[in-house]
Design a protein that fits this description.
76% of the residues lie in helices and 0% in strands. The relative contact order is 0.13. Helix 2 runs antiparallel to helix 3. It has 165 residues and is an all-alpha fold. It is elongated. It has one domain.
């Protein structure tokens, strides 16, 4: 129990990792469900369906990560927060669309039920591979923790001669 509390303590890297992972899992499920409906039910091209599905998850991902993973409130800094987040999301969209379109072409003649498993799996696998890089960029660049400055200790009488040298 103490280990779980330590992992989830506000401000810890492990808490941010777990929260970001939870948000990513949620938006991946959302995107996968949309992808399956578009491909298996509505007969969309796999690449086009992936673009629609991933775009549906970008806004919820940004909002949930901003508010929950890196607790930010108030006005958004579009240049520092939103633009880099969207740029990474679009990069992920491009990579996942290429992989899903390739998988869609390979599985075009397969039964819809099988494609309903393969295509979201390819999409999820692609995002899993990109997740670590995205987390590090978000954690260190887009939403850096505000760390209080550590005051420099005053010299003690024993060490004043070292400072004068």
């Amino acid at each position: 129990m103490n280990t779980a509390r330590a992992l989830l303590r506000h401000g810890t890297t492990s808490r941010r990792v777990l929260c970001c992972l939870a948000v990513s899992c949620g938006t991946t499920v959302l995107s996968a469900a949309i992808l399956v409906v578009l491909v298996a039910v509505l007969a969309f091209d796999a690449g086009v369906a992936n673009v629609v599905a991933v775009c549906c998850g970008i806004v919820p991902s940004y909002l949930a990560n901003r508010r929950w993973t890196w607790p930010r409130r108030g006005r958004r800094d579009w240049a520092r927060e939103a633009a880099p987040f969207w740029a990474m999301s679009i990069a992920g969209l491009v990579v996942s669309t290429v992989t899903v379109a390739a998988a869609g072409a390979i599985t075009a003649a397969w039964p819809p039920g099988v494609r309903s498993v393969v295509l979201p799996s390819v999409q999820a696998g692609t995002f899993a591979a990109l997740w670590i890089v995205q987390f590090l960029v978000l954690d260190r660049v887009v939403f850096p923790a505000t760390r209080p400055s550590i005051p420099t200790p005053a010299p003690t009488p024993d060490h004043e001669h070292e400072l004068a040298a």
